[in-house]
């Protein structure tokens, strides 16, 4: 790669030099050549002579009357005579020094100006990056984006490659591209069959799309996973989360406790579940952790698993704050508002939830469809809907 | 090698600078060698810009998103043809196309101008060089298409879907060939002013360039009009939009120039006026470029507005228009005035044509600039649209169109109107008949429609009368007449075709404006609509997936007399996900000269959809007529006497004849 | 007539023609130019009944009501005032709630603006210029960083 780019840069400078040389020659050659002079009036004479023949033709064809033709002929003749009188009045004065100097300056200006301007504004070291070549280079040289694009290109060409979808799905999920993850999991399930891992992954992706809320659609996927593998920890954890988000914190705690007890000590899910239980049972904290903004992806969960409960709350609050900030900048996001109001309430911050609700009404309008959804949610969360 | 394009562009700028100064100085000093530099430098400069453009095109074709310009305006899934045309479907790329065409014309002058007087040639190339330098600076400073983006994104932001159409392949290049073609006339005019004399060779040269530019501009405007007609989904062919006016003004002035150049070439009269028109026409092209590219107007053409660009182009505009007009004021008096003529003569008719056309140009100019001026001065926002132009442009054009058939029939120097009128009796009688028949026998025809149809007939038959008279049809034996007809100079055919095309376009406009039928309704699948005695059945909506869009196709069947489907018309609503943009793809069925035009609206319940259907009688004539006009210009250009440069030199058998002159 | 008189009469004719054309142009500008208003500007404006104007602003959220066939009603707002607009026909592709539009027409006797043309933006980067300028003045709309 190093060598190739070095060669590429060399090639660039070589071609640039050749082009510059060619351009300089375009100035130099005419200066070196012996120029031939020609009387200026010869061109006019040609034109007038041509007009005469044209006139004769028109007259022969009967387009103009003979008398008119005669008149016109006389007029052209007058012009030719006038022309003769004008010619010869010019003398050429050649003062050789100044023009030669101008020629030399012009020839030199081409390389000097071009190279100084180009080096100031150009990026000679940056090679071309045609998309196809980028997708074909060695995987080690590619960025993650390029690798994903490559896989996508492959899947566009072979959309029935189930294994491709299977590989890509969790990568999408980790990249935060929940929408694409849902599609990929669905394709993998369709083509390769349903497994607990795919179903629970699909559920997680769906939850990711709706911002961490375990929707009924996500629950269906998790339940399908449990049917295939009753012990699947991801599915059990998220179904617990679904209970918590519905406000059934006690039932959620039971589910998580059962999950934690059934798992070996070294399972990452065990500590996740244990901490969820601790959080749920903590006095004054009726909420659970994961209701917050962008759905916890695998790395978040891994990170959360190794945190203290305080750190984890901080992390979740951070996520919610990010969402809040985003909505301040771009308030036109009904889904986001629903999520934010719910998250604050779930975190036990009723005042903030109330305030977020107010802002949401302001942004979306109380009477719009989205406004009604907000009102519904506020009612179910026990928030005041001020008129 | 993307950077090669950037380097070549810088090289072109420096070459253009040399082209601006060295030949000019050479002409001033009378130094043949310095003057001779102009040609090779111009041609090399064109080669560099062409290389640069080719590199940019390759970057588009290969989806090289390390260029900001490609990233912003392309997408890897875009169909190949639009990757290609997308090169100029954005501000930076279209400006590069602009200068490439400019330098192309310069190169043509350099290549075929070997028989021009040396000083004239040198000065013309220098003036071309000034324009090129100004616009290359503009590109490199404010609109560089070679700005890099590191690290390169993996996917682009896609081209505005409205531009993803075959129209983009044709409309801008044709339009620019027209706009920029007038730069040659401008350079000739300024060169003549610098030299302080206009010779016969000058007139010979200016006319073919005007003709060529005019042919391209006509095509560009017509193509733009047809594109807007089918792509925007409202079925309108001309909106008096400021951007359209920006291209229409140089066309009107160019048409005037075309006519005054005839007088100048044939009669050595109107020299100073022709020179002024040449300057004005290109000034209007520059003004058009400014209006469209600066962002003072918003439209589909204003890709992105950036104040620095507007100021820069305004600067170019001021320098070139102001400078050339100042030069004109200083030097015009030193030019010798030409021959005299009687007001009633071919020359007189052409002057009248110029009077009308330039006044019409001024009207369009005022209507276009007035809102800008009012906003700048009083902060009030107003818009000047169709009603204004109908009231001003219309009355100015009507008398001109009535007079058109007289012009070619009048004799030079002193004509006889009564004799010409007598010769046009047949055309007049036929036009009158058309007026009466239209008014009495076609339902819903207004007086205005009848007169319009009559005027169109008058133009068409007037043009044919001109040909018939010149061939002597009716006066001499058919065989002789045929031989004469075939032997007519091509410029006579050119004139007749151009005027005939004008009549056809007018007929199309009258047809659509007066006899159009329209229906807006909600259609359920299976429902039949009757419009202008055509029966259309809606077959239903069907989702279809395109390469970078999805669409709902509405299928319609055109029913024959027995109720059987005879043709299918597909109209669609498209959605381009990358830009989150819907577009309407009108369904158009051409039935002889008329069209059925269907555009889809929103979907209602149970598969029903809002449908707008137009019957557009004779609509294709609008663009068909412009094609005939272009053919006229082209035929005229082929006339031996008009060919670039002097006629074949009998005396110099040793010299290679220039390729165009043979 | 002498040659001089002839020339003078030709020049006088041309000048008369130009004068007439100029007069016509300025008469037409006075009669046919339509003014652009935002809803809040309307109170200060004196409109003659039936006078054609261009009304611009944002399509207010939740105000689009589709009637029979292709009838549609919506509110155009500049966040201070809202004007009810009625229109029959196909709406432009990019007509959406919260987006800038320019409508052209005149006020009906019931105080509803009857539009005969509705223009929306051409692509997602573009806001009708008049609307964008006026909204910026009012501080309602900022150009989003692209």
Automatic annotation (TrEMBL), chain A:
InterPro entries cross-referenced by the UniProt entry: C-type_cytochrome_biogenesis, Cyt_c_biogenesis_CcmI, TPR-like_helical_dom_sf, TPR_CcmH_CycH, TPR_rpt
Principal subcellular localisation of the protein: other
Protein name (database record): Cytochrome c-type biogenesis protein CcmH
Stretches assigned to the Cytochrome c-type biogenesis protein H TPR domain: 153-268
Bias (Low complexity): 272-298
SMART domains documented for this protein: TPR
Lineage of the organism: Bacteria, Pseudomonadati, Pseudomonadota, Alphaproteobacteria, Hyphomicrobiales
Location of this chain's protein in the cell: Cell envelope
Pfam family, one: TPR_CcmH_CycH
Highest taxon, organism lineage: Bacteria
Transmembrane regions listed in the UniProt entry: 6-29, 97-118
Automatic annotation (TrEMBL), chain B:
Signal peptide per UniProt: none
Residues annotated as transmembrane: 6-28, 40-61, 95-112, 124-141, 174-194, 206-228, 248-265, 272-291, 311-330, 351-373, 393-412, 424-442, 448-469, 490-515, 618-637
Domain Cytochrome c-type biogenesis protein CcmF C-terminal: 314-640
Predominant cellular place of this UniProt entry's protein: membrane
Record's subcellular location: Cell inner membrane
The entry's keywords: Cell inner membrane, Cell membrane, Cytochrome c-type biogenesis, Membrane, Transmembrane, Transmembrane helix
Keyword Signal attached: no
Domain of life: Bacteria
Any single Pfam family the record assigns to this protein: Cytochrom_C_asm
Domain named Cytochrome c assembly protein: residues: 88-294
Membrane topology: Multi-pass membrane protein
Role this protein plays: Required for the biogenesis of c-type cytochromes. Possible subunit of a heme lyase.
Entry similarity comment: Belongs to the CcmF/CycK/Ccl1/NrfE/CcsA family.
Protein name, per record: Cytochrome c-type biogenesis protein CcmF
The species this protein was found in: Aminobacter niigataensis
TrEMBL record, chain C:
Alphabetized InterPro entries for the sequence: CcmE, CcmE-like_sf, NA-bd_OB-fold
Pfam families for this protein: CcmE
Residues that bind heme: 122, 126
Keywords: Cell membrane, Cytochrome c-type biogenesis, Heme, Iron, Membrane, Metal-binding, Signal-anchor, Transmembrane, Transmembrane helix
Signal sequence extent: none
Cytoplasmic compartment residues: 1-7
Membrane topology of this protein: Single-pass type II membrane protein
Localization per Swiss-Prot or TrEMBL: Cell membrane; Membrane
Residues exposed to the Extracellular side: 29-146
Protein family per UniProt: Belongs to the CcmE/CycJ family.
Role summary: Heme chaperone required for the biogenesis of c-type cytochromes. Transiently binds heme delivered by CcmC and transfers the heme to apo-cytochromes in a process facilitated by CcmF and CcmH.
The name this protein goes by in its record: Cytochrome c-type biogenesis protein CcmE
Source organism (scientific name): Aminobacter niigataensis
